[in-house]
Hints:
The chain is mainly β. It contains no helices and eleven strands.
Amino acid sequence: QVQLVESGGGLVQAGGSLRLSCVDFGRSFGSYGMGWFRQAPGKGREFVAAISWTGGTYYADNVKGRFTISRDNPKNTVYLQMNSLKSEDTAVYYCAKDSRGLRTGRGLMELDEYDSWGQGTQVTVSS
Length: 127
């Protein structure tokens, strides 16, 4: 059963911007933290950004200041605004939903804390 659906990926030149969206078709979106992760070819899946159910945000050091995560609870949607894109940002980006509701804190940066994943959307940054 598909629960999380990402969109917004594509091909962009270095220095450009993209906005990813993820719609949650499951329940109680507003009570759960949401995260974005990415996986480049030949590499493991890595944390990018997360937002708690209260709106607290967390970022990987290599995207801080360039990426912004936000959520729209009435639309059951989480966004990732990506600016000043670099070639090293090229990856498949995945949306994920926290396995436990009403959580805040840096635990939301851990891949193992998520149990629902989208299918991924490709982001390619050309240099």
